[in-house]
Amino acid sequence: MPQISNLRLLISSANHPRILSPLTLKPPPPPPPSLSHLFRLKHPFSHTQNPRFLFAAFSSSYSRKPRNIEQPSSLGRRNSSSKADNKGKMAMEEKGPTAESLGFNKRRAEGKDKNDGKKNLQLKVRKLNPVNTISYVQILGTGMDTQDTAPSVLLFFDKQRFIFNAGEGLQRFCTEHKIKLSKIDHIFLSRVCSETAGGLPGLLLTLAGMGEEGMSVNLWGPSDLKYLVDAMKSFIPNAAMVHARSFGPTVGSVDVSTASSGTSDDLYVPINDEVVKISAVLLRPRYSKVSDTTKEGSSELDDPLVGVNHLAENLLVRRMHSTAEFALKPGDLSVVYICELPEIKGKFDPKKAAALGLRPGPKYRELQLGNSVQSDRQDIMVHPSDVLGPSVPGPIVLVVDCPTPSHLQELSSIHSLTPYYSYPSEESKEMCKKVDCVIHLSSASVTCSTEYQQWMSRFGEAQHIMAGHQPKNIEIPILKSSARIASRLNYLCPQFFPAPGFWSLPQLKRLSSVSKIPSEFSSCQVTAENLLKMLHGNNVTNGGSATMQANKVMIEEPWLHETALPSCLEGVTREDVEIVLLGTGSSQPSKYRNVSSIFVNLFSKGSILLDCGEGTLGQLKRRFGIEGADEAVKDLRCIWISHIHADHHTGLARILALRRDLLNETPHEPLIVVGPRQLKRFLDAYQKLEDLDMQFLDCRHTTEASLKTFESNEDKDVSESACVPSDQKNGSTLFAKGSRMESYWKRPGSPVDSAAVFPLLKTLKEILRDAGLEALISFPVIHCPQAYGAVLKAADRTNSTGKKIPGWKIVYSGDTRPCPELVEASRGATVLIHEATFEDGMVEEAIARNHSTTQEAIEVGDSAGAYRIILTHFSQRYPKIPVFDETHMHKTCIAFDMMSVNLADLPMLPRVLPYLKLLFRDEMIADDIDVATVAI
Hints:
alpha/beta, 8-stranded mixed sheet, 30 helices
């Protein structure tokens, strides 16, 4: 791509705006049309009319359902932007700018859209085939390159799939490597926390939305799973979680167990069919364990567990009085899972079968299944042992998660694992179950200890897979497709697409020393690799790869449309503010785009997150490196969430949990999270599981009107109602009392403590002031109940000559249709970050889903006089770059994951766009999957 380097020259000449690219062939395009046509009915209004009045005028006409709305599943990508644009223009010419073609879905905004209705999700019933079943265990390398989540493990059978742990990024990893999540039947959690279950909400929602009916899965975990399920109910359909079951003692109660004759302690059997038996052994920290020989019944969310004995209540009471009382806390319980496959039948001998009078046919299969049959020619019963060779014990795989040294003390004394240990004597050897493989999910600080290594040696010749502790995996990105694009973009323009901040060499050396395994224990240990597959036999496959071909011939037509530099950018430095687009896709993660998250880097003054979709922490670590991301999380001033949809907030718990851990030894204040009041319901429920060290502030208390009232009453003792003036309590005139959209503002949500609002607003004001910001303002938008956009306004500053320089202004639309509230908030914006989910030819789909098209987003920015517009939140139907028309994009740029826009580079931002379109002119060749394998 030699000619792409022209852009580097172009960027470097930013101080000489009159220098033109040698390939510039077109004059600057004319200014785009005003947004005013969006606010016209059949009789056009004057351009000077108040957009509030105009929007109120047409919104009442949009109560009818839009006609001929295509469903997302039936919509394909347009062949070209010009075709899409022409289609949209033809529709406009035929229908005119009618209410139905340019409105919004009122029922969706109110939360009443039938397309978002409840589904009766069903479990898939699969017919198992215990004969000739292919099976293997595979490491799903979630979090290995960034160390932000626990690895996942896939147990694969022809007719069944089991996943152990579902950390953030699992969906994206499986999409990258073509692992079909629709085939998953059961999900097991080794612990219940953000590290192991951060990807679970998004996964459940994805499965629920598949096909016409959707699907559900069985979810298993220790008893504190209840807290996670309760939290997820605030935004996930209950039908997706009705098959959630837990086992073990009730968390928060006294850990008293009862004796169980004939069974091992703490052993539960969730799955026991003809293909596999999965047992769960509970692992408590030493300080909370009461008795090594006792057991308590299960705590369930619905149906009782298979194989769990329910003991008499009076025996439990007697043990309670005779045992010391220790209460289990959420997060204390961990689980060791034991996967036992049935014995492998000996080879069928057709000659023996024929000698016993059997004809070839169904009876052969019955014998292979272990059933006796009547001979066809002789009056005898033929038994499996008559025609089958000697059976071989089935493989056994253990999945071990020992999170702390306190759990390690208990691990070595659990009696349930005794049958799986190897003993040197021949007599005891016959009584043991030979373990083929042990997968260790535990941290390196635990597994590298002498005590843990000695415990591992009890399994004899078993293969040990140390998941997540391979420095090689940290150097190699898991999301290869995304990393490949990031590399190409970095070559194109390093200013806007900096190189990823992966581990530095000194960090890798330190990690290698930490993960070093003592030589006396290393002979049977394998460090896990991404997609490592444990097979039965010596089948080893390695996928080939196809390299991408660079564009050799490119026609570049960059815009060099000159605009006046805003006064707020006078004297701006590279240490003032940087906008990092961590996630630029919508709905669910894909190979190339993660879901919504924007990191506003204020450098020495801290940072702010606008939305926090799943995988936000991993993206931070890919952008800034492990240590850099930790510093960024510690320096967070505030997190702002636009609305309750999962692609905008499910990464929040992981970020908050990491911040809590990083600042554990440092005096600090809880982080303020600003969001819609439905989000408080989720956070309150989740905090019963693990402390998130945060305070919640409702977006409606950070609207412009509310903040003005707060400032006018700052020295008074005011209530919540005083913070929201009577004429603005519904957020704006658009949602005023008695309006058709009033219910949009009054959706159910957790009540906010009135007494807590005023001090929180005061704290937020101080935090923003310390960060050099004047205000963080929320404003309602048209998408779903309680959806907001945000304004970040910097404080004015004075230059060396005493001249007052106005502060910059960043506006984020959230998810929305074009609306006057957004236009008003964007007046004079330095940067408008606007969602552009759909291409221009999909206006009706945008209306149905209450999103915006590319052209609509640009017109909002133009109408408001925004200096620069960044388009984001693209539908995942556009995997690499969205379809767009260049005609009106003279101050606009398309966002990519990891794109970093420094305010000092804003004048050059639109000049990147033509190069981006040329860079992705041809489809890239997808690499085949490289699968590392090891035989067990």
